[in-house]
Batch of 4 targets.
Target 1
Amino acid sequence: MHVSTIQRWEAGLVVVPRDAIKRYEELLHLPTGRLTAVFDLLPGLTRHSRPLATATGGDLQQLTAHGSRVGVLLDQVCSSAIVTGPQWDELTGLLAQWPAAFLPPRMWESMAQRLLTEMLVADGTAWAQRYEALARLFNHPTGGTAAIDACASAAGLRHHQAMTSTVAALGASDHSDSIAALVSQVHNPTNDRALAGAVAGLAETVWRGRLKPAQRGQVLAVLQPLAGSGDTFDASSSDLVQRLTAISPVRREPVPPDDARRNVVDRVTSRAIAQVDGPDPAEYDVLGELVHCLLFHREPDSQLGASFTLAATPYRRPLAAALRQELGASLAGPAGWSTTVLAALRALGGEPELRLAERIVTAAGVPNETVRVAAFALAHLGRDTSPDWWRSTIAQRLARPTDVEIFRGLAYSAGITGQRAALEQLRADPRTPYDSQAAATWWLDLPAHILTSTHR
């Protein structure tokens, strides 16, 4: 490859092909998917079109090779074998190039249900690979219906523990069944988490202009009373109502930085850059934009995209340390800023941030909202929390009145990190809130091969 082409890639003047991103992973000795998963993830999170897969041509030898490889991978997926993130990436990538692929309906259903379950219990790169794989399946001409049915069916189960992301995933498809399922969940939601997921999924659907007039009316009838109400759904409902009633689509942009936000971004960015040897001065502005998006963008998906982008760079640990310093100075104040920083650390943090989250969960005098976010953050900061900490923390929380959402967070984090003893403790104790007992049961009932696969 000519050096001038590489320079144009690295300057952002020309879109980098995916194969080049994959080669960067190899040259830099990075784990498979560290860069390509982010490259695949960003278009869906930032409302940009995904690159179209090139359909397999008429070359008989190529068709035979692709079909043979798909068959091998399908045998794994439809059994109790371990399936890794790169294998999901490969399988759905091959199927995306093969729009006329014929598979028995049961095979599509088995593949979609397993992929959805693995996506819901995976984290980090493993989650990103499965999220994009599910998006490819949604948009497959013959396999898409099975993926939509898997999400819509799971969304109707009140005991399902990953309801928000299950419903929100439907927003990746323009199929009429997917849109109908989202509208149905707004009009008659399974629970508050399903409603939150439906609003998130519809944000994508509305942006692409796919709602019919009758569906727009149904959604507005539910969301207009919530907009401006000051409750949990106020901000998301207000935004979606604005999009639905605007003459042309409204794209949310980052909030223009005021002096206070600019100072925070400059402080965090400066601390991170100071820990990296010889950064290019041009990186400062790019890093600052990403940090501002991570902390202050009004669109949760854009915040998530910024967090995954930053986590794939050498600035991950320095940024985590800088944000940890911000968090330590804000815990005594209002919950708003501390929860923002904790949420930002989910994709960036490691062992030091895990220890801090543990202290927040057990500390006295910390606002419940901060504790709740810390309880959920434990899932994404590592798997090194000791069984003794889990046992004593759950016992401590059960001994006094505690916010139900904190227990939900503890059950979620115990499930993601494989703390079976903690889940059994939550399920067995009669003082555990019913929702958390159901969550513990759900996690404990997941097949071992699913849980093992999500860490590969």
Target 2
Amino acid sequence: MNFKSILTTILVVALALGLGVGAGYLVRNSGLLGNGGGGGGAVVTQGDYSSVYANAGGEVVMYSLSTCPFCKQARAVLEKQNVKFVERIIDQDKDAKVEADGLKIKSVPTLYIGDQSLQGYDEAKLVELINAHGKAAKPAA
């Protein structure tokens, strides 16, 4: 290897590392993934969400991104608990994006259950809300 190819390799590796670190920083600080989904950043808010349910056509509504791993985990919890829910995927549905903007959703997943919303992912908080509002359906016999 000559000096030029070694220097080129070093520059490519440095650029890749820089892009990876930069992308990680943007994802963590954009707020879009609910504070990393670790649970500590998930926030429950009390309110009247009747218009959310009327627009979405369901009693439990989740706003998500198709690429969000925490949205996938929340979906799995809802399905495991036999919860009937409407999912609004904001990066695939223009109407869902407009709704999310109107609701000032800043992180995903954002779930609306009864008179509470959960922004970010925390499995324990999600199960608690499901149980508190009696949204888990009995499995078919």
Target 3
Amino acid sequence: MPSFTLPRTARITRITRAHKVATAVLVAAGATTALAVTAEPSSAQAASAHAPATVKKVSANGMPAAVQAKGDAPKAEHPAIESVAAQVKVTDTAKQAHAMKQAHTVKQAANRSTERKAQPKEYANNLDGWIREALDIMKAKGIPGSYEGLHRNIMRESSGNPNAVNDWDINAINGIPSKGLLQVIQPTFDTYHVAGTADKLTDPVANITAAANYAADRYGSIDNVNSAY
């Protein structure tokens, strides 16, 4: 095939037109690239956009964990509450001290009562004391009689003299004179002597209790005796 060569002007025109077309294509491609580059975020922005979001812990009741932890933290006692607690403690201590003091007082009273019971009762060494001591013994032994009955018969028999002796009645004639506050003869004293008293006819308390014991056996009580018996 015979070669055909375009004229110089035609070649230049053709190249120039082709070049323009290529340039236009490149420009268009560059604009598209530029738009793509502009639209695409930077690497830092992309990393930031794709970074996992921070997740805050939430408690069971829906409150943030930090708030919940703060709410769960022990609270300091209010000064008023601490004051009341201190007063209650002081009150309890005072009550305990009072109870201990009362218990000690009761114990001391019981000890004094025991000491009084352990110590023998004291009686005056006179007619009143002798009668009162005899009455306590008679009560313990179950022998009836009253202060009035004893006193009345004593005054009639001996006028209150524990050493009085009858030396003129039938008993004296028989050699067993009546003696003591209630004028008791020795055989009667020996039979009705009350255990725990002196074994002596003229002892005031022993004489009274033996006579009251004899009168209770014969008359029911010394209170029923109004004359010689």
Target 4
Amino acid sequence: MAYVSAEARREQLIEAAVRVIAREGADGATTRKIADEAKAPLASLHYCFQNKENLLLAVFAQLSEELPVDVDLAEHEDVSLGLVVEQCLTRAMQWSARNPVRMRAMIEVTLWAERYDPELSVSFYDAFLKSSEAVLRQVDVPLTDEELHSVLRVAISLVDGLSLQMLTNGDTERTLRDTATACAMLKAFLNESA
């Protein structure tokens, strides 16, 4: 059997965990099933992560890094908060449409955290809130901090809800049309608030 470095094994196990979690849920994703999916010895999973909880956290961290929250402001002359929110929401939903297995795994891990460690699930959302706020602060924000956080929470809720609908009905085209509708609504609200 060929040698696999700890870092390469770690990546294999995270990818296997994503697939198993998406297929069987976080509770059904046993360490044995994940190791089997990765074609790795169970001991290597415990060596790399010590336990299932650490592996699930690594899965969430990996997927969070992949979910786009940045925007490309250089290609626009008139950059508004509404445009930035639209780009963030659209890019997140395009990623979700291209990566339904990964989005399902992210949702499953978030629900697992909510059941077993509610403070952890709150920290997941807080991390999204902070990274999204940093992106939005690149432009003039005509809202109070509380108003901006409310808009961000609504945008995150839209990503969650639209992703769940897409996973349920499998209609990515409809989901992207609904995303455009949601963006138009948010932009109208932000234009009115400005």
